[in-house]
Write a structure and sequence with these properties.
By secondary structure, the chain is mainly β. Helices cover about 0% and strands about 55% of the residues. The chain contains no helices and eight strands. About 25% of the residues are buried.
Length: about 100
């Protein structure tokens, strides 16, 4: 079944997961990042990233590919305390 993504062609170019990543500690009221190895990812792609068990205080604030094969995920901590989350399973769709 083909899925249409308006403006991005007829289907996702890449679906990957679970990919294990360790967000480390994200300071209070700050943004941290986690690098994910995603084979087939390229800097000209757009990404949708989910992490079903991410700490309730963290939010995914975007993602981008720096070099082929590496997707950087921004994690936002809007709370008043630092959050040191454990390793997570991330799922990535590349468009």
């Amino acid at each position: 079944m083909a899925v249409a993504f308006r403006g991005f062609g007829s289907s996702p170019q890449l679906i990957s997961g679970p990919i294990t990543g360790d967000p480390g500690s994200v300071a209070a009221a700050a943004v941290g990042t986690v690098d994910l190895t995603v084979p087939g990812s390229t800097p000209d792609m757009h990404f949708i990233v989910t992490a079903p068990t991410l700490n309730v205080g963290l939010a995914i604030g975007g993602s981008y590919c720096t070099t082929a094969g590496t997707v950087v995920v921004r994690l936002i901590n809007p709370t008043a305390s630092p959050i040191d989350d454990a390793s997570q399973s991330f799922y990535v769709i590349g468009l």
